[in-house]
């Protein structure tokens, strides 16, 4: 695995370099990938598949086909009446955890 410490993102003010460990979430939407950093969503040029391969394994976990979370930013999990599980981050951002990834996430959290 080719992990990295920094990543380039695009903010309204132009290109910025972010410390990967400070990114709470990577999420894809409308054919773009966003990094949740400091309460803002910044565009990154990589796919989630590329990020999943290159992010530090000890920090990040895929939780759905469209999201990768930084485990340090997890606050809680919520089970909704319809059976959907969501993860809530420190900044109250909520992201759906799909069944495909729930078992892997559970194993990570239990073993740590």
What does this structure look like?
Helix content is about 20%, strand content about 45%. By secondary structure, it is an alpha+beta fold. The strands form three sheets. A five-stranded antiparallel β-sheet has the order 5-4-3-7-6. Strand 3 (about 25-30) and strand 4 form a beta hairpin. The longest helix is centred in the C-terminal third of the chain and has 13 residues, at about 100-110. The mean pLDDT is about 90. GO terms for molecular function: DNA binding; phosphorelay response regulator activity. InterPro entries: LytR-like, LytTR_DNA-bd_dom. This is LytTR family transcriptional regulator.
Strand order of the largest sheet: 5-4-3-7-6
Mean pLDDT across every amino acid position: 91
Total number of helices: 2
- Report, as a whole number of angstroms, the end-to-end distance: 21 Å
Overall body shape: globular
Please summarize the sheet with the most strands: 5 strands, antiparallel
The ordered H/E elements are: EEEEEHEEEEEH
As a percent range, the share of strand residues is: over 45%
Would you tell me the structural class of the helices and strands? alpha+beta
Helix proportion: 10-25%
Low-confidence stretches: none
Taking Cα atoms only, what radius of gyration do you get, to the nearest Å?
Answer: 14 Å
Secondary structure tally: strands: 10
Protein name: LytTR family transcriptional regulator
InterPro entries: LytR-like, LytTR_DNA-bd_dom
GO molecular function: DNA binding; phosphorelay response regulator activity
Pfam family, one: LytTR
């Amino acid at each position: 695995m080719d992990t990295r410490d920094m990543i380039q993102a695009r903010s309204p003010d132009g290109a910025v370099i972010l410390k990967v460990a400070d990114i709470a979430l990577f999420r894809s939407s409308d054919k773009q990938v966003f990094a949740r950093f400091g309460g803002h969503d910044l565009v990154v040029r990589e796919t989630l598949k590329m990020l999943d391969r290159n992010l530090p394994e000890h920090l990040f976990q895929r939780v759905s086909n469209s999201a990768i979370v930084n485990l340090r930013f997890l606050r809680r999990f919520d089970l909704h009446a319809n059976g959907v599980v969501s993860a809530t981050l420190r900044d109250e951002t909520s992201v759906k955890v799909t069944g495909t990834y729930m078992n892997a996430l559970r194993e990570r959290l239990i073993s740590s």
